[in-house]
Amino acid sequence: MVKYSEVYQELKDKYKDMVKEVAITPNDRTLFPDVDWLIGNHSDELTPWIPVIAARSSYSCRFFVLPCCFFDFVGRHCRRQSGKTQYRGYLDFISEVGSACGFRVEEDCLRIPSTRRVCLLGKSRTYPPAGEVSMDAQRTRYINSRQGQGPAPPPRSTGQPSGHPDSQGPPDAGADGPWLSGFRPRERAERVRNCASLPREFVDAVVLQVAQLLLGGKRLNTGGSRSGTAGTWSRGESLSLAEVAGQLGGEALQRLRRECGGLQTLLRSNRQVFEVLQGRVRIRDWRQETPLQERQPEARRRVSSEAFKTRLCWFFLHHPDGCVLPADRCPFAHGPGELRPPPAARGSRPRR
Question: Has the keyword Transferase been applied to this entry (predicted)?
């Protein structure tokens, strides 16, 4: 699956002669000495590298980044200060990268409908052009310090960075190597790693198997349907994810890891049936969910009401004691006769 928005795809088709799609590994071959700005809009793995690439491309090159996902130079960025939100800590990290690269970093907030709309800009330098050699040595030390251990970045190709106008001669053999070992650019086509890629019958079989484990081996209904009563309805026990995994077949676990990220991902995606908390899973009790829904904001309650009775109730179909809620209070349909058509997708744009 290639992750493109419809707007981007339209622009890409319209200006196909101007758009180039390439994988960028930060090294001396991926510099842009002729550009004025490097812009990273939700650039993920490349976000911390954009100030570095801009600084090494030319003294006049500037950068703009709109951070979203939290990546370090290699791998995920780890939160280090509990007194800050993860987002604030990541913004401070990218600002620190820009400063270490010799930029005066500015922060601004875009007027866009997003919770992550803080952008960082490097429009000017803190050093004169003559200080490029010593500043680049500082950049290299900073980048290497983020790895903690392992080989140092490959040596720079000349006394001046190869992308700068005053660099001379071809880059040396280290120019093709990454500035920090371990960096892997994202593949152009990303595999979907969620339960949507798994056959429905496989997911249903795993859900039934896990539910039977939690209910102490009670036989589940496979075709019948019934409503339960609060006095006899059983929630079963709570098991750790490791205990559940130990009872599933090795082939099923391997398939889950390969296709959707693992057992926990599948259980969380089946929220109607399971509650996963602190590494343990148990059957969800919808009597406890109803008061929580009533305290939700109005907008979320409206969305919930639009989805009311658009899916069949798993408990009505499969739980040995039936559904703990009466039909008029259960958000899911007690039989095909109660099913409503799902609401239209929000924000969908007509295809041309």
Answer: yes
